[in-house]
Amino acid sequence: MSWQENYQRWQQASLTADLSKELQGMAGDEASLQEAFTNPMSFGTAGMRGVMGPGINAMNIFTVQQATEGLAQFMDQLDPAQKNAGVAISYDSRYHSQEFAFAAAGVLGAHQIKSYVFDSLRPTPELSFAVRHLHTYAGIMITASHNPKQYNGYKIYGPDGGQMPPEEVGQIVKYIQEVTNIFDINVMSVPELRAAKLLQLIGEDIDEAYLAKLATVTINPDLIKKVAADLSVVYSPLHGTGKVLYDRVFRTAGLTKISVVPEQAILDPEFATTPFPNPEFAQTFTLAEQIGAEKSADLLIATDPDADRLGAAVRQPNGDYQLLTGNQIAALMVNYILDAHRLAGDLPKDGRIVKSIVSSEFPAKIAAHYGIETRNVLTGFKYIGEQIEQMEVTGQGHFMFGFEESYGYLVKPFVRDKDAMQASVMLAEVAAYYREKGMTMYDGLQSLYAEYGHFQERTVSFDFEGLAGQEKMKQVMAAFRKQPLEEVAGVKVVAHEDYLAQIHTENGQVSPLALPQADVLKYYLADDTWIAVRPSGTEPKIKLYFGVVAEDEVAGKAKLNSYQQELSTRLK
């Protein structure tokens, strides 16, 4: 069907008032109409995410119902016990999130599939926990994570609480594509669902169970008690779901001097104080830094709107705050977790940390010092979840920590996705660890550099918007494969990996890669630098990742600048 035919179908459909008004506003804007009506939203292993509005390539109640119809038809093929286990549903503070959540429940109900829907917004990790706690077959999270206000998204979780595996997602996508009329999907109303006992509201019952598990994250509660009266933390939920639980989470861990950023504790879908509610950006910490300066806070923490990612800033000797990278946060936590277990005498011999292939080798080097193995996986926390599942099933390996450089961390596996609530508690405990030593976390990071080398990483994103952008991204990746890098800024490439072809090449010898297929290229340079090129799975971007080791920060930045300058020309 052409974009003109799709557009005409939408013009004739019975739309919600907001969609109808937006559609009228698009009249005559052919570029916008082509973007909205040419191709349907892509649905991958991370679900779907996009700008809210009318069209088959946008987040709206009809595309949400279509995606859920695909899930429902997939569940119709399961055995009765699996189908009857139902689906847990949560949502964040964005426009239409609650509406989308109950619309999804309505589609499931029409297939006699029960939904367990939170009575108000809750964090993504709590949804992952709820799937495991309630033993549902699947979970749905309505969120666009850290994207700007105009976005929303839809993520599906599997029975283990991790994002649905690729094989099952492929089958769900097949059913989604078979929905020929997006406006002719059976949807039950909420009163109908309640009368048929196909919708159960959940909330405090799951909160209490989740908080009880969060209480087990701290390793040394006595340490926190010793410094609790002096340890000061400033927290911001960035207008999102972290607000719901943060106070109980920190106090359960024994932390008493917690200050919230009041302006950012308002559940605001406009994200009024921070147009980009991403805790990796310095601007999200402006208000927290002001409170931190007033209170001489040891640590500033921000979680993104669905509370799965965490960013942090630490006080420097001059009183200013330094924003940490995701890799630095991971290094500090890995060092503390392993050292605390060593001191407690319960550091397992078969302990493992798990990280993505585009994350720093810094935590891996720290782990090796403690005799702990590091497992590398593809980008996507579901792959970390798969490693946890494998350890539990085989009895080989003991999960200690999982992370991605993009500010995602998991300490305890009662959740199978990144969990900023767990990470908040653990990072506060790390701050307590250094405070007891008479050090700041900034001092602690410098001591790790002195011991293990000055690791620095950088991620650079290049935007490719629209239909033309999608084609350009394919061309860029094809060009990298057609003309492999042999050197970068005068430094020789000694090995490279193509995760799409699943091969590792070194000294002319080709060997297979054990990881699944993915559109990622990774290069290893003679000076221990690594570089990766990867299209984003959720946004129209190609990302360049750099990891270097140097004698100090200045030398590290010089290396990063040199490599970035040379490679950036290939993405413009």
Automatic annotation (TrEMBL):
Cofactor field: Mg(2+)
Domain of life: Bacteria
Pathway note: Glycolipid metabolism; diglucosyl-diacylglycerol biosynthesis; Lipid metabolism
Classification via PROSITE patterns: PGM_PMM
Source species of the chain: Lapidilactobacillus gannanensis
Statement: the UniProt record of this protein carries the keyword Metal-binding: yes
SUPFAM superfamilies xrefs: Phosphoglucomutase, C-terminal domain, Phosphoglucomutase, first 3 domains
Keywords: Carbohydrate metabolism, Glucose metabolism, Isomerase, Kinase, Magnesium, Metal-binding, Phosphoprotein, Transferase
One Gene Ontology MF term: kinase activity
Family per record: Belongs to the phosphohexose mutase family.
InterPro entries xrefs: A-D-PHexomutase_a/b/a-I (IPR005844), A-D-PHexomutase_a/b/a-I/II/III (IPR016055), A-D-PHexomutase_a/b/a-II (IPR005845), A-D-PHexomutase_a/b/a-III (IPR005846), A-D-PHexomutase_C (IPR005843), A-D-PHexomutase_C_sf (IPR036900), A-D-PHexomutase_CS (IPR016066), Alpha-D-phosphohexomutase_SF (IPR005841)
Record-listed E.C. numbers: 5.4.2.2
Domain named Alpha-D-phosphohexomutase C-terminal: residues: 485-554
Pfam families: PGM_PMM_I, PGM_PMM_II, PGM_PMM_III, PGM_PMM_IV
Name of the protein: Phosphoglucomutase
Reactions catalysed: alpha-D-glucose 1-phosphate = alpha-D-glucose 6-phosphate
